[in-house]
């Protein structure tokens, strides 16, 4: 209970600091491009049910599909690379070459190959974030001490038992870190992708408002996008706290030892 209270106060503090910085920009710059924070929040609440909600829902579906497939494919490949040296030697050079490439430039190619629908946007996000899951899973598996695998073999347990009780728990902390990073990257990539061949999505809404010089609605979209990102991160934190409960206990013990 105390942890959730602290988390809530931290979020309120973050909102307060952002609003303060926004208000200072509004006062100091005195430009229509930076609207009044109070008026923007009021307008956001007003247009949310009829306009923003659907745009956010469309964007959330695109992000969700891409992250789901990237997590499944990337984690599977990463675990396999971490366990199988030959597989790792075959795929690692390809991953290291493709990972740094600016894959956002492939959107026109995806649109030519897969049409002007949802699929090119989802594929673009997928190819951008899948490498983070691959590398995080591979590195986490390689960090597991060999003696732990020997212990499982000595007990006569099957590979699926090692996967369930050793490998997956070992990679989860890094996996959740990759998931958080992927959410942020996905939102940035989606904002770009939604400016092409679409009439829905929060990225389209923001840029359309900008093109019409409706800066209040533009900031309404930005505000809604920020809140969406916050809610996603809060959900991830809650899931991690339950799934990786030992990590919470370990962190608490470290803090207590430092304070002592």
UniProtKB/TrEMBL annotation:
<keyword id="KW-0813">Transport</keyword>
<protein>
    <submittedName>
        <fullName>ABC transporter permease</fullName>
    </submittedName>
</protein>
<feature type="transmembrane region" description="Helical">
    <location>
        <begin position="218"/>
        <end position="236"/>
    </location>
</feature>
<dbReference type="Pfam" id="PF00528">
    <property type="entry name" value="BPD_transp_1"/>
</dbReference>
<feature type="transmembrane region" description="Helical">
    <location>
        <begin position="95"/>
        <end position="116"/>
    </location>
</feature>
<dbReference type="GO" id="GO:0055085">
    <property type="term" value="P:transmembrane transport"/>
</dbReference>
<keyword id="KW-0812">Transmembrane</keyword>
<dbReference type="InterPro" id="IPR000515">
    <property type="entry name" value="MetI-like"/>
</dbReference>
<keyword id="KW-1133">Transmembrane helix</keyword>
<feature type="transmembrane region" description="Helical">
    <location>
        <begin position="185"/>
        <end position="206"/>
    </location>
</feature>
<dbReference type="InterPro" id="IPR035906">
    <property type="entry name" value="MetI-like_sf"/>
</dbReference>
<keyword id="KW-1003">Cell membrane</keyword>
<feature type="transmembrane region" description="Helical">
    <location>
        <begin position="12"/>
        <end position="29"/>
    </location>
</feature>
<feature type="transmembrane region" description="Helical">
    <location>
        <begin position="122"/>
        <end position="141"/>
    </location>
</feature>
<feature type="domain" description="ABC transmembrane type-1">
    <location>
        <begin position="56"/>
        <end position="240"/>
    </location>
</feature>
<comment type="similarity">
    <text>Belongs to the binding-protein-dependent transport system permease family.</text>
</comment>
<dbReference type="GO" id="GO:0005886">
    <property type="term" value="C:plasma membrane"/>
</dbReference>
<keyword id="KW-0472">Membrane</keyword>
<feature type="transmembrane region" description="Helical">
    <location>
        <begin position="60"/>
        <end position="83"/>
    </location>
</feature>
């Amino acid at each position: 209970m105390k942890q959730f209270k602290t988390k809530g106060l931290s979020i309120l503090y973050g909102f307060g600091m952002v609003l303060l910085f926004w208000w200072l920009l509004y006062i100091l710059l005195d430009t229509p491009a930076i609207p009044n924070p109070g008026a923007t929040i009021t307008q956001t609440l007003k247009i949310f049910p009829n306009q923003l909600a659907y745009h956010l829902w469309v964007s959330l579906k695109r992000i969700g599909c891409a992250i789901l497939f990237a997590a499944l494919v990337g984690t599977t490949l990463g675990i396999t690379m971490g366990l199988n040296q030959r597989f790792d030697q075959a795929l690692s050079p390809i991953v290291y070459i493709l990972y740094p490439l600016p894959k956002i430039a492939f959107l026109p190619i995806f649109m030519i190959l897969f049409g002007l629908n949802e699929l090119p946007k989802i594929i673009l996000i997928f190819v951008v974030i899948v490498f983070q899951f691959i590398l995080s899973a591979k590195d986490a598996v390689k960090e597991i001490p060999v003696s732990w695998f020997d212990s499982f073999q000595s007990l006569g347990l099957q590979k699926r038992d090692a996967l369930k009780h050793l490998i997956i728990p070992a990679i989860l902390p890094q996996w959740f870190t990759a998931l958080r990073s992927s959410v942020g990257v996905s939102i940035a990539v989606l904002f770009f992708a939604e400016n092409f061949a679409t009439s829905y999505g929060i990225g389209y809404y923001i840029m359309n408002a900008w093109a019409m010089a409706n800066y209040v609605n533009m900031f309404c979209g930005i505000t809604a996008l920020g809140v969406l990102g916050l809610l996603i991160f809060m959900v991830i934190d809650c899931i991690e706290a339950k799934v990786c409960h030992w990590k919470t206990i370990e962190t608490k013990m470290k803090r207590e030892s430092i304070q002592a």
